[in-house]
Amino acid sequence: MDFVLHTCARYGEEFNQLLLSYASEFPLSAQNFLNVIDRMSVTENLQALSSWGRILAGVCAEWLEKYRAKINEKCKLSKNVANKIDWRLKISSYSPAQAWGALREYNENCKKKDRNMNEVDSAYVDCLLNSLSNTNLPPDEKVCQTLSDEGLRGEWLELWMIELAGLRKIPRAMLPLVKKLQTDTDYLRQKTINAIVRIGNPRAINLIDKTFADDRWDLRLCSLNVPARLKCTRSEEFFLHHLKHEKDVSIRTYLSGGLCGLFSKRGVDVVREEIHNGYDHGALPLPYLLTDMTEILSIPLPNGFFGKWSVDMKRSGRHTNGKINIKKGCGKQRKFGKIKKQTNMSYPKTNPNPSAAKSPKSAATTRARAAAGENIKNAAIRLNDILARNIQASLSRYIFQSGITSSSNALKRSLCRRSKKCSISCTSI
């Protein structure tokens, strides 16, 4: 959290949205809590205020009660954050039995009124779960039984027990949680992945490994989030093993991306080979992930390794002599991240069927098609020019300030660059 606060104070929250989005998971000291309040009093960025608010609402009730006057005076709280703080203070006085009873009662209420995701008071539920996470009510055995109970499938209580298992880090809940990944509900899958990662037991990767090769494509893609987020040796072994046998190009690309996310030294050559053999360009920008990883690990890349797209990298100044130029990491010619202006669209100028051109009727048809093609080409170029100008104007507001590139720490530079890419994709389009 010290690094997050220092980076935001020096460079501003605008360029560190990705870093802020994870900050609510970091431990928070009393001094950092006061610093968060100070940051909220000066920032004007709405997305940053939302991230700081999540951090503020997640602290213990004692701190909220002690500094409530200062929070109300200095902080610009959204309605959701203010509601969560109020519930946090109120529920802090509940006994474990009262909190558990309130959660079950709210589940019945939601079931009777058939409430959807937008109608459930998530702030109220989060506060109840945080209160129950420090008690033994319901017991861990009851939580595991609830997760395995098919009769509760689709109820809100099922989802809340998944979250409670993650908050308590119950090792016995690992098997039913991994089975939950087989469901077709995206929201439930995401909550399940978060709970598995919170527990942090590598046994989850062993359970996923048993069925990974035979699962459906979408289930395999979903389950890859677990080893990607569990930073351990077993995750690295999982990715390396399946890259030896996997045939699907998209899955191989995500497996390679997982190695990059782990900063695996053993995975550098494997990812390089994957890029050389061909990868799914629509899935992940593997070359950029590889260059980030090798920069942090101080492993130089050979000259001209990236082949045809290394020309674009050299034009932008990002990749020179096997190294990355951080100052020019946002060049106009980047293949990923920005729309590249295209002015030379090629169309066939001759009839692909020579025999058909002998007929006058066919020749007239060919000329008409060529004229239509030329009109489409000119219209596409004009539209592309308009889009390029408009999007470039929007994106120019988010170009790195020169101070960001002066840092000597490679990890900080990479995080800042990734945060900047996230803020562009979230706010400028």
Detailed description of the structure:
- The structure is a single chain.
- This protein has a two-stranded antiparallel ribbon with strand order 1-2.
- With 429 residues, the chain is an all-alpha fold.
- Helix content is 63%, strand content 1%.
- The longest helix has 36 residues.
Shape: globular
Contiguous uncertain segments of 5+ residues = 310-359, 387-429
Fraction in helix = 55-70%
- For the CA atoms, what is the radius of gyration? 27 Å
Order of helices and strands: HHHHHHHHHHHHHHHHHHHHHEEHH
Helix-and-strand structural type = mainly alpha
Number of helices: 23
Mind summarizing the main beta sheet? 2 strands, antiparallel
What is the straight-line distance between the termini?
29 Å
Strand content: under 5%
Number of strands: 2
Q: How are strands sequenced across the largest beta sheet?
A: 1-2
Question: Summary?
Answer:
This protein is mostly helical. The chain has 23 helices and two strands.
